């Protein structure tokens, strides 16, 4: 099947999807496998298994040791990495065009023939526990986990990607192996590539490289139920780290692009309302920004701020006033700036093989097809000032979620903040 800009998609008999975006003017290629398995697929007792599995995939296969994997990629100047998200896990590489075969061979090897050696597992469990400890010691990082948990209490989407020290330490080899066998099947996986890539050759190579994927098991994820609420952790540190958020939008929600525009003009850049009012005019924070997190069946809209203990008294009313004000309408000049920011971000990302590869995988997972950049830009351009104000009223009418870590004696009550946000 042909797509925009010569993007092609092929579904192998096994169910594995191969999608490529050729870039003739570059000498490199990025390719990777995106697996539809992440934190939201984990039972509570196995929280963190997706991330631990991602670590273990690099610790040796039937024909490569962990050192072999590292040395083979370094020998060609390539980069091999992975990450775990709440709804997927990705294993990817960037190499020169002549080394794509090696990158595919290494990735397919670790995803099919990892041995999960017991000693390696014990070492990697200790590494992940250290990673969890580091996150706990980083308040501007861990506050987002508390925000997620408060928005989606007692649900897989509310649990931390890293898991907890207790759940990670309790995992055994069979646990990790069985989880991989249950989720890393061909229909749950996508091979995406961008750069100096020949689609037909990659399809042929992929069919040979992935003969040993397990049979598919249906993915059974309940839709998230947003709750909202209040989380506060008193800590003897210099700054209050605060996230304020609301029930957001799924990727395919008709208002998705209007919400992105709202986030950009509210707190997405140096000219945004929050940056100008809170940082530039009042000097209350060093960092403040808004963000959207979307899934196929839900999402979150949030604002992060980090400020001094005394400044939080003034910060909350100002932020709440800006939230309420944007529901009354936005100006065409700030819309034009936000529109330009979003368009530039998308178009600039197309210059990177890694960004194109990631974008392809995400589009296929969400929409089931590559989405032409012209289509995305047209949807951004079509958003009106009325759309943004309407979506603001829609989002900010939900129950707020507050997560805060730091010296909180001057942070006003949840009920008081909620009253300020009443539309």
Description:
With 423 residues, the chain is of the alpha+beta class. The chain is 45% helix and 19% strand. It has 16 helices and 11 strands. It has a 6-stranded mixed sheet, sandwiched between helices. Strands 7-11-8-10-9 form a 5-stranded mixed sheet. Strand 4 (79-84) and strand 5 form a beta hairpin. Helix 9 (256-267) packs across helix 12, helix 9 (256-267) packs across helix 15 (385-396) and helix 10 (273-281) packs antiparallel against helix 11. The model has no long low-confidence stretch (mean pLDDT 95).
Radius of gyration: 23 Å
Can you tell me the overall shape?
Answer: globular
Strand fraction: 15-25%
Question: Which class of secondary structure composition applies to the elements?
Answer: alpha+beta
How many strand units?
Answer: 11
Read across the widest sheet, the strand sequence of neighbours is 1-2-6-3-5-4
What number is the mean pLDDT? 95
Straight-line N-to-C gap:
48 Å
The low-confidence parts are none
What is the ordering of alpha helices and beta strands?
EEEHHEEHHHHHEHEEHHEEHHHHHEH
**Main sheet makeup:** 6 strands, mixed
Helix content: 40-55%
Based on the model shown, name its key terms.
423 residues; alpha+beta; six-stranded mixed sheet; five-stranded mixed sheet; 16 helices
Give the helix/strand layout.
Layout lengths: L7 E4 L5 E6 L5 E8 L13 H8 L9 H10 L3 E6 L4 E8 L3 H13 L5 H19 L2 H13 L13 H6 L2 H11 L5 E7 L3 H11 L19 E6 L4 E9 L8 H12 L5 H9 L3 E11 L2 E11 L3 H15 L5 H18 L3 H15 L5 H10 L2 H12 L4 E6 L7 H7 L3
Parallel strand pairs: 2-6, 7-11
Antiparallel strand pairs: 1-2, 3-5, 3-6, 4-5, 8-10, 8-11, 9-10
